């Protein structure tokens, strides 16, 4: 903990008013803040959704199918290396809105160089650029969450209504890329670059979000966010991270090979079909407050973890000339993502001490987009090379071995979660001690 505990109360941004005030000024300030957080979240996922969903298809179309697995693996390595570091620095030195802006401006510059490299078939340089880009981008997911939770204050239950616009942003990006005919084109990276630059500039207009641990002594361990690892002493937090790791292996497999698989099934407009998954998130994300009241945090997260296994079972069945099952699997995105990633971020926002908020959100990104995605993309990439890439006669049925991995890990995660996470529906969630 900081040696200056009073500084946290002084630096904490004001919460969004509840709306019961009688003066116009608080209402105006609340609406402005809500709008800013919404626009930040929407743009964050326009950036992400404009390229990440069909990146594998772009590589396969441009003669670089052999680096699909390594590309997503390097993206996961970047998620391991950068979020905790930037979170530790941001908790002490850099206002969060400035860190978000600088990261997106740098990422936009990298994206501008990527189309020419991919079109030239330079796989090695393309991998380098993707790695560098993801070093800048991965920490922004945790930073955006941290900014939202800091300014929501005691009104954290409003987070789903902000986060839903992230889903809207991903949907708009996917539909836009599909409508422009860029699902398999390297030119989609120009769309990402433009969105990154716009968000980078907009970030500097966000409300001031000062470092919550400003003035605290900085140690070498802080470079890797070591203090956030103290939270693993708490049983529920440790169980969340362990089950999150297992579940995110499924996410890593999906992100790496969902779009090439849809292409192998003969489905047109892959970006548009994938956007259906994000569209389903809109319905589920706004239902989160109701679901939490009805079944509680534990069983809502259980549903999110277990449903990952179900969607890959549908992928297997889709190989038997049943493309609608593959589309159904895509639409399950609403439960898979909202009741896993969004709820996990909400839980961390409720239990993490304010001085470790950015690092704790960074740890979630580290586990999910880092280690879990690394394992998922690495293992599935090796299976893909053996069962699909080296067999010109491979059909959709050849992908079954790839989908078996996430089915097993998702099922194990759901089982361990049900047995080990201890929290009753009516029990209050209180902040942990670091």
Describe the structure using short key phrases:
single chain, 15 helices, 434 residues
Q: Quick summary of this structure?
A:
The protein is an all-alpha fold. It has 15 helices and no strands. The protein starts with 5 loop residues before the first helix and ends in a 14-residue tail after the last helix.
Categorize the overall geometry: globular
Oligomer: single chain
Mean pLDDT: 83
Which structural class do the helices and strands define?
A: mainly alpha
3D architecture notes:
By secondary structure, the protein is mainly alpha-helical. The protein is 72% helix and 0% strand. The protein contains 15 helices and no strands. Helix 4 packs antiparallel against helix 9 and helix 11 (288-318) runs antiparallel to helix 15 (400-420). It is globular.
Write the layout of secondary structure elements.
Elements: H1 6-11, H2 24-49, H3 55-61, H4 68-90, H5 96-119, H6 123-152, H7 159-179, H8 188-203, H9 235-264, H10 270-285, H11 288-318, H12 323-331, H13 333-351, H14 357-389, H15 400-420
Helix pairs in contact: 2-6, 2-7, 2-8, 3-9, 4-6, 4-9, 4-14, 5-6, 5-8, 6-14, 7-10, 9-11, 9-14, 9-15, 10-12, 10-13, 11-12, 11-13, 11-15, 13-14, 14-15
């Amino acid at each position: 903990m900081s040696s200056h505990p009073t500084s946290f109360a002084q630096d904490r941004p004001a919460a969004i008013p509840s709306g019961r005030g009688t003066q116009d000024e608080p209402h105006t300030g609340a609406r402005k803040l809500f709008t800013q957080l919404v626009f930040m979240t929407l743009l964050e996922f326009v950036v992400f959704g404009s390229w990440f969903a069909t990146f594998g298809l772009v590589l396969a179309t441009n003669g670089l199918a052999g680096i699909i697995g390594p590309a997503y693996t390097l993206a996961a390595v970047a998620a391991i290396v950068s979020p905790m570091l930037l979170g530790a620095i941001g908790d002490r030195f850099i206002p969060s809105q400035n860190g978000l802006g600088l990261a997106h401006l740098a990422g936009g510059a990298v994206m501008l160089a990527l189309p020419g490299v991919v079109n030239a078939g330079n796989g090695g340089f393309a991998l380098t650029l993707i790695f560098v880009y993801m070093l800048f981008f991965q920490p922004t997911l945790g930073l955006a969450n941290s900014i939202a939770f800091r300014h929501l204050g005691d009104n954290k239950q409003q987070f789903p209504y902000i986060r839903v616009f992230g889903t809207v942003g991903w949907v708009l990006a996917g539909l836009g890329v599909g409508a422009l005919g860029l699902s398999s084109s390297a030119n989609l990276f120009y769309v990402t670059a433009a969105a990154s630059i716009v968000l980078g500039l907009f970030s500097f207009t966000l409300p001031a979000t000062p470092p919550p641990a400003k003035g605290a002594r900085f140690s070498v361990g802080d470079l890797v966010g070591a203090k956030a690892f103290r939270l693993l002493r708490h049983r529920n937090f440790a169980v969340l991270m362990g089950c999150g790791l297992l579940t995110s292996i499924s996410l890593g497999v999906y992100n790496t090979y969902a779009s090439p698989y849809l292409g192998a099934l003969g489905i047109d407009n892959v970006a548009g079909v994938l956007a259906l998954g994000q569209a389903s998130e809109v319905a589920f994300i706004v239902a989160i407050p109701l679901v939490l009241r009805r079944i509680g945090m534990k069983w809502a997260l259980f549903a999110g973890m277990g449903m990952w296994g179900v969607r890959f079972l549908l992928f297997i069945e889709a190989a038997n000339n049943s493309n609608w099952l593959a589309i159904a699997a895509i639409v399950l995105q609403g439960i898979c993502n909202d009741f896993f990633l969004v709820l996990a971020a909400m839980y961390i926002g409720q239990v993490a001490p304010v001085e470790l908020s950015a690092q704790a959100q960074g740890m979630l990104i580290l586990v999910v987009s880092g280690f879990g995605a690394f394992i998922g993309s690495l293992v599935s990439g090796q299976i893909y090379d053996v069962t699909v890439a080296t067999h010109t006669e491979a059909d959709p049925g050849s992908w079954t071995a790839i989908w078996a991995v996430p089915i097993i890990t998702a099922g194990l995660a759901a089982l361990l979660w049900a047995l080990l996470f201890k929290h009753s529906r009516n029990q209050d969630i209180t902040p942990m001690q670091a």
